[in-house]
Amino acid sequence: MPEGDTVWQAAKRLRDALAGQALTRSDFRVPKYATVDLTGRRVLDTISRGKHLLTRFEGGLTLHTHLRMEGAWKVFGAGERWRGGPAYQIRLILGTADRTAVGYRLPVLELLRTTEEEQVVGHLGPDLLGPDWDPERARANLLADPGRQLGEALLDQRNLAGIGNVYKSELCFLLGVTPWLPVGALPADRLEKLPALAQRLLETNRERPVRQTTGLHRYDLFVYGRAPRPCLRCRTPVRVADQGDGSQDRPTYWCPTCQAGPAPGPGAPQRWRDRYPRRTA
């Protein structure tokens, strides 16, 4: 699932392409909205809210989309060949005189009144890249369930909105704790800096084409996707295992030397030996 910075970039692409212009094409390719036509309506704005996208139109309408794992918004110029997938994967086309936005494989697509936006995003915690960012509230949300594993708490968008699997793993590495550590066991000084660190990572990367957390020229990420290559700090092989409630397990990366705290139990899938070829750093 895209991280908050990726969704912010998608919102910017849509805003730059459509905002302030009247639609010359509106093509909904989902049964529920097959008869809807937004042609002639002016696009007011597109904003990101955590991992949600809200595109607002004159007349008080909002298009709510969520990319989840497979969805994507692509923007093309006049006459440009569309590249994003086969035509049958297109769920929505919004066009102006010179730009066309094409939504591929959108699992969430709904029209609602702009006044009703809170119905779809009101449950979210403070947005790491939004005007409502509030580090104190984010910290309080995390501490509301001190026994919960830190990795799971970071992914819960009700606590703070925008962190996905990549930043979960990278944040835990930078904090020096495993994602299985209970939130309440996180040392006070690290809990204090966690929200600001998370926000800084996403804010630094929202304008970048390639996400970077290390500050190193050759390596973009410390642990995510690196199993079983050596840790960039201590050379211990990075590991990966599933973390979740069983219904939504997600691969979680960590360094067993640099990160203190519990590791997955003996029955948890330790997938790094089977799924990832051994490579040098």
UniProtKB/TrEMBL annotation:
Q: Which InterPro entries match?
A: FPG_cat, FPG_N, H2TH_FPG, Nei2_N, Ribosomal_uS13-like_H2TH, Znf_DNA_glyclase/AP_lyase
The family database entries (SUPFAM superfamilies) matched by this protein are listed as:
Glucocorticoid receptor-like (DNA-binding domain), N-terminal domain of MutM-like DNA repair proteins, S13-like H2TH domain
* Every Formamidopyrimidine-DNA glycosylase catalytic domain range: 2-103
| Enzyme Commission number(s) from the entry | 4.2.99.18
Q: From which lineage does this chain's organism come?
A: Bacteria, Bacillati, Actinomycetota, Actinomycetes, Kitasatosporales
Q: Sorted alphabetically, which Pfam families does this protein's record hold?
A: Fapy_DNA_glyco (PF01149)
Top-level class of the enzyme under EC nomenclature: lyase
Protein name listed in UniProt: DNA-(apurinic or apyrimidinic site) lyase
All copies of the FPG-type domain together span 222-260
Organism listed in the record: Streptomyces sp. 900105245
Q: Region annotation Disordered: residue ranges? A: 259-281
Keywords, in A-Z order: DNA damage, DNA repair, DNA-binding, Glycosidase, Hydrolase, Lyase, Metal-binding, Multifunctional enzyme, Zinc, Zinc-finger
Q: Which domain of life is it from?
A: Bacteria
Q: So what family is this one in?
A: Belongs to the FPG family.
Stretches of Basic and acidic residues bias are at 271-281
